[in-house]
Design brief:
The protein is mostly helical. The protein contains three helices and no strands. The chain has one domain. About 70% of the residues lie in helices and about 0% in strands. The relative contact order is 0.09.
């Protein structure tokens, strides 16, 4: 996965590993936001963890909407189809 912000490796291992961790988190966050906003999953170009998390978020939001609108049974039927 290409990082959003590249990290330069140096002799100070703790520093560049910390920067690598931050860059990885920023990149994954950006990919998650992009995936959630898109209308479909790009399973070829998106890490599987991001696709799974985006689907779980979407499912949870849809369940909450169905409960609030009193149409949970309808949503269940849609999922079973």
């Amino acid at each position: 996965m290409p990082l959003r912000v590249p990290v330069k490796i140096s002799d100070d291992v703790e520093v560049w590993l910390g920067e690598l961790e931050k860059s990885m988190r920023d990149t994954l966050n950006m990919l998650l936001q992009k995936t959630i906003k898109s209308q479909g999953l790009d399973i070829v170009n998106t890490p599987s963890q991001i696709c799974c998390l985006a689907e779980q978020i979407s499912f949870s939001e849809n369940c909450a909407k169905a409960v609030k609108s009193g149409k949970l049974a309808n949503y269940k039927q849609d999922l079973q189809r």
